[in-house]
Write a structure and sequence with these properties.
It comes from Candidatus Onthenecus intestinigallinarum. It is a single chain. With about 300 residues, this protein is an alpha/beta fold. The chain has two domains: about 5-185, inorganic pyrophosphatase (n-terminal core); about 190-305, Diaminopimelate Epimerase, Chain A, domain 1, CATH 3.10.310.30. It has helices at about 15-30, 85-90, 120-130, 140-150, 160-175, 180-185, 190-200, 220-225, 235-240, 270-275, 295-305, and strands at about 5-10, 35-40, 70-75, 95-100, 110-115, 205, 210-215, 245-255, 255-265, 280, 285-290. Strands 6-7-8-9-11-10 form a six-stranded mixed sheet. β10 (about 280) and β11 (about 285-290) form a beta hairpin. α3 (about 120-130) packs antiparallel against α4. It is globular.
Amino acid sequence: MKQAQRVVLIAHVSPDGDTLGSALALRLALLAVGAVADVVCQDAVPELYATLPGAGTVVPPEKVAGRVYDLAVAVDVSDALRMGDCSPVFEAARSRMVVDHHGTNTRFGEENWVDPDASATGVLVLQLVRALGAELTPEIARCLFVALSTDTGHFQYQNTNAQALRAAADCVEARIDVAQITEGLYRERPRAKTELLACALRSLTFERGGRLAYMKLSRADFERCGASDAMSEGLINYAIETQGVKVAFLARENDAGVKFSLRSRPPYDVAAVCKRFGGGGHVFAAGCTIAAPLDEAIPAMLAAIDVG
């Protein structure tokens, strides 16, 4: 990475705080040491992350078509399909690297730094920033803190460990405004997202004696609320945080079929469930897409989940 003069950083489809925060932090670090760095993503930056330093520089892959990069880095991307339309950009680079923390990562790069013990890819990118010799500026620290916070549920999920908390402390020492960041991420939401939450909660269904819970959102629900798909991020927590629930999922319609977000409590492995449908993720947080309408996809998912 130190030798590369032109680097492209690829965020995964339906970008979240970890992929965007990590990619934008790494971009700033590379620029600081004299490299040219671009961040590309198939999908637009969600409004929730639009104020991240450099968020306005994220471009779709067609904007860099024809450019040849010394190095392409897939950031927080568990498999090549998660790059979406950015795959040709990745493949065209002279060297290809994967930096990720998903246990289901398929190691699709020439170099693969995959650490499932890391709470977020942001933990790994902080190490890269230091290895590059770049200063941990407030701008880089803000990006990394968002990466850490969003992938650990603001340091509440079971994947939160000492390494993540030390990384967060380093970001705080770099003079970020934690209260401001937290306000934007967790204490303010567009009205459309609140209406989408209400719609999801109206669909909340309990199965298996209350050990399994799920919610569903149709395309009509999104249209009626004036909400984007990105606004569904975090809604699944309302199901898994219900007392007695061991496994929960949110099913939402999109052009490819039905996208599922799953969460669980020990010892239930939802990554294994999602792998059956071509998806993946972490043991207690995973996702997949089933190419079928809601009324067919949900029974298929219910049949795949065993909560005793």
